[in-house]
């Protein structure tokens, strides 16, 4: 499970725990390949008396790899979405951690957005409408988004059929 047990209340149960779809890493991987290709191309083209140029290019490649590949990879690894039987929990950010908790009792609408690429890759954006001033929270690139939406709808139906109260025994 991606979320720490310390973030859960007593008796709270995780229903869905996921991070964004790996499609978020497609552009960073492409950038990595291109940067390494540039570095290799320059390395094979420079003469022995131009080694300073090769070192400068490899330095730029290293910075590009850190910025365009490593940082997005870390961002992807540390971001998590969790749906429990009481709330939706989001945690993102590498250096500055950001979190958002939405109690199920405040959710008024659940929508799914799936572009063509999302449908091909089996993911989509879950848009949660709640009673907050912000209006809606979008959770992008959720794997198996239809399944997550169905489980969330089941939780909301169970909550509303109990009259909006959380059953501690659930």
Describe this structure in words.
The protein is of the alpha+beta class and 170 residues long. Helix content is 42%, strand content 26%. It has four helices and seven strands, in the order βααββββαββα. The strands form two sheets. A four-stranded antiparallel β-sheet has the order 1-2-3-4. A hairpin with a 5-residue loop joins strand 6 (123-130) and strand 7 (136-143). The radius of gyration is 22 Å and the shape is elongated.
List keywords for this structure.
alpha+beta; 170 residues; three-stranded antiparallel sheet; 7 strands; single chain; four-stranded antiparallel sheet; elongated
In short:
This protein has 170 residues and is an alpha+beta fold.
Q: Which structural category fits the helices and strands? A: alpha+beta
Major beta sheet, strand line-up: 1-2-3-4
Per DSSP E runs of 2 or more residues, the count of β-strands stands at 7
SSE pattern: EHHEEEEHEEH
Helix content: 40-55%
Radius of gyration: 22 Å
Q: What portion of residues belong to β-strands?
A: 25-35%
Quote the average pLDDT: 88
Question: Describe the biggest sheet?
Answer: 4 strands, antiparallel
Number of helices: 4
Shape: elongated
Which stretches of 5+ consecutive residues score pLDDT under 50? none
């Amino acid at each position: 499970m991606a979320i720490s047990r310390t973030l859960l209340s007593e008796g709270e149960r995780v229903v869905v725990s996921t991070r964004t779809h790996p499609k978020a890493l497609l552009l960073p991987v492409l950038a990595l390949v291109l940067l390494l290709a540039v570095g290799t191309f320059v390395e094979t083209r420079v003469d022995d008396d131009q080694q300073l140029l090769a070192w400068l290019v490899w330095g730029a490649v290293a910075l590009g790899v850190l910025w365009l590949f490593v940082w997005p990879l870390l961002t992807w690894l540390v971001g998590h979405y969790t749906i429990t039987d009481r709330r939706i929990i989001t945690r993102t950010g590498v250096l500055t951690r950001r979190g958002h908790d939405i109690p199920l009792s405040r959710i008024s609408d659940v929508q799914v957005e799936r572009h063509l690429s999302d449908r091909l890759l089996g993911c989509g954006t879950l848009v949660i409408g709640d009673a907050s001033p912000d209006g809606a929270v979008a959770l992008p690139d959720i794997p198996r988004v239809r399944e997550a939406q169905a489980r969330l709808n089941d939780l909301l139906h169970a909550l509303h059929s109990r009259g909006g109260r959380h059953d501690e025994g659930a």
